[in-house]
Design brief:
Length: 351
Amino acid sequence: MRESDTSAREPGFAARETANLPEVQGSPRQRTNGPWLFAVCSAAAMLTYIDGKFVGDEHATVSVRSRALNYGIGCFGGIRAYLADDGEQLFVFRLDAHVRRLEQSARILFLRLPGTRDELADTIVELLRRNEIHHDAYVRPMVVSNAPKLAPLLREEDSSLIVWCMPLQRYIDKDSIDVCISSWRRTPDNSLPARTKPTGGYLNSALARREAHDNGYDEAIFLTNAGTVSEGSAEHVFIVRDGVLCSPPSTEDNLDGITRRSIITMATEDLGLRFIERPIGRTELYVADEMFLCGTGAEVTPVRSVDRRMLGDQDVANGIGPVTKQIKAYFDDVVHGRVDKRREWLTPIWG
Ligand code: PMP
């Protein structure tokens, strides 16, 4: 997978100590669009929220002693905001669902949000406003253990809430991708629950992605320890067989995905497609008529080959099958606010 060049360095965790810094008011930002966007918006110029304050991103730092850094104790979310067709409005996709999942993740990990879900949603809206976001963007809320103490301990009272954002257009910069089955297995739910979107758990994803890239693939697909398909490093898997859309349930050690759930709703309720949620075997991927990955970052990313087997029934020239094409186009319409019945999934930022 080749990620879009964001130029924005990914900020790390922020420190509780910096909450004492003077609050920075939202800096006016030029309206920017297009591929050069990434070059002009550096993370250093962004505002980040940490523990009740909006501070310049350069002040949002974490102690080297924090449990968040030393033991990867924390959980996070990833949310997209899309510039509407009018070039003015910005729509956050499924904000409530993302906030709810983060709260649930925190609860599993004995961490907590400082306030209500509505307050977190308001903070995210406020962050986008203060950063004057008028382009496609990504928002990263995190709840981490910021205690600078030895030993991995989960304690609600150590929770820090951090939210940062950055410009993001394509996360996977290819129209269709070549994937492999990873030699790394997905961490089982009973070891490190993917459901919690745990910061530390992404070492598992990083190992698989590195292996995939080293071997010339764009992305890796994890199997569970039982040998069935789990998910990609940061995406869910869908296949099409004989006209039926299939995807493994979250009990296959994958994240309870918001894009996945949204696509299932769109496919079955809006597009009249048949969908079955069931375990998928490795070699079923080789004989799938179509396959795509989905996620907040990946959106709908068509897959053209798995372990060097070209998938059937696809237009080989572009590697995108007809069902995938239909879902991808509809998804694009929904997130940009072109589908009235799905407008309730969108939170407008401006006006
Ligand atoms: N699986 C993993 C491991 C992920 O990190 C992500 C990205 N959040 C996904 C799947 C896709 O989930 P969602 O649609 O909720 O972004």
